[in-house]
Each structure stands twice: as structure tokens, then as C-alpha cells.
Design brief:
The protein has helices at about 5-10, 85, 105-120, 125-140, 145-155, 160-165, 170-180, 185-200, 205-215, 220-230, 235-240, and strands spanning about 10-15, 20-25, 35-40, 45-50, 55, 65, 75-80, 100. The protein is of the alpha+beta class and about 260 residues long. The strands form two sheets. The chain has a six-stranded antiparallel sheet. Strands 3-6 form a two-stranded antiparallel sheet. The longest helix is centred in the C-terminal third of the chain and has 18 residues, at about 185-200. The radius of gyration is 18 Å and the shape is globular. It starts with a helix and ends in a 22-residue tail after the last helix.
Amino acid sequence: MPQEREQQRYRERPSRLPGAVVWTWDAPARPLLEARSVLPDGCMDLIWTGGRIVVAGPDTHAFEVEPRNRVSCAAIRFAPGTAPVLLGVPASLLRDQRADLADLWPAAAVRRITDRIDGAPDPAAALERFALDRIADTGPPDSRTVAVAEGLRRGRTVAAAAAEAGLGARQLHRRSLAAFGYGPKTLARVLRLQRALELIRTGLPYAEAASVAGCTDQAHLAREMRDLAGTTLGAYFSAGEPEAAANSETPQPSGSSTTA
């Protein structure tokens, strides 16, 4: 399938949940032949797909999605640090994982939720309604770690972002593991890479994008791309960017919360 046609199958809109995005992916009738790689972005996703709800944890490296797992789905992408309060589990337990929600919550409760979403005329809206109701019960995420994530997204150093949020080094590390799934330095690297890629999409040369994003030079950006994305800038952009819905890879039904 041409890249343009494939990207048209992916749609997103801002969510009523602060900082979140609702997205959908419609798989074609013909089986897909190509795998896709999802780059780390600091986010976590809650994904509904045909009677199941799957949690995509925070990634520290590119996540490969096999063709057989690229199925139609509806999902919510949560901003860094905002999903764990909804799930009731620390993000560190889901790092580099794709887990069935039924492995994290009582199966009967998850079945009631999935039945409601399965029967809804708009599964994406129903999933969002569930998340809104859940947040109303649990309360908002940790405002300090959310502030740190926002500071890092804007290009602040870890030290500056922590100081602005009123957190010491030990407090920040402990809260970061629970909120982001890893330490603040890893989140800073992930968000810096995402900033650089966004700048390149606007037409900025690699070297200039690296500088503006906060890398020391183009070689630094190239190393980060290899470490976090497992590829090069040239290969990534020449192959066509994978749609975000590649994050829909789900573990095979086995009662296990490990990655597929």
C-alpha cells in the first residue's frame, strides 16, 4: 500500500483529557505485509481493539509492530506522566511492554468496560468517556511530574525542570519512575529526539535541527537516533514515517502481560 494511503487510515483529535490525543487506525481489508516501528515519545496509550483493551507502556527504544498485529483500533495517547494514575500502577511496571488491561485489573471489571465499548457506535468516544469517568474517580496526575515533563518538552534541562517543579534529585527520580517509567534523563533524551524530528519535518537541515533541539551537534543527534530509534535519520525519513497507530501491537492472548 502506498505510504499516503496508509497514513490516511490514521486519524487523531485532541481529547477532553488534558494533554491527551484520541486516535484511530482502520486496517485495510487486505493483510498488511510490512512491519512498522514506533519511536519512543514518552507517552502511554490505552488501546481498544475488538473486545480487548491493551496498555502500551512507555518505550525506551523503537517498538516493532508485526503485520499480523496491525489491526483496527481506537486509542488514547496520554501525555508523559498522566496515565499511571488512571491505571493505578506505576509506569515502570509497563516500561517497554504491551499488556492486556485484564492482566492489571480484575477480569470481570475489564469485561464490562470492553462490552460497553464494543457495543458503542463510536468506540473511540466510548473509550474516552471511560477514561474521563476513571480520572474523575482517581483524581488528577501528580502535578509536579507533569510540570517536569512539560519543562523537558520545552527544552529545559533536568535540573532546571526539577527546580521549577520544586523537586530535589531523589524526589524527582522516584516520582519519575512511577510517572514516566524511567528516570528524568531518559525522558529528556526521548523528548529532545522528538523535538529534533519535528524540526526536520518543517524542512530544517539536520545540523540546525540538532542545535535547536538541544543536541551538541549533528553527530550527537545521529547517536540518539541510533540508540532510541534503532535507525538513522536518512533511513527514517526516506522510508516514510510510520503512522502512530503502529502502537496498536497487542500481546497475543495468553494471560501474559509481556510484549508480543
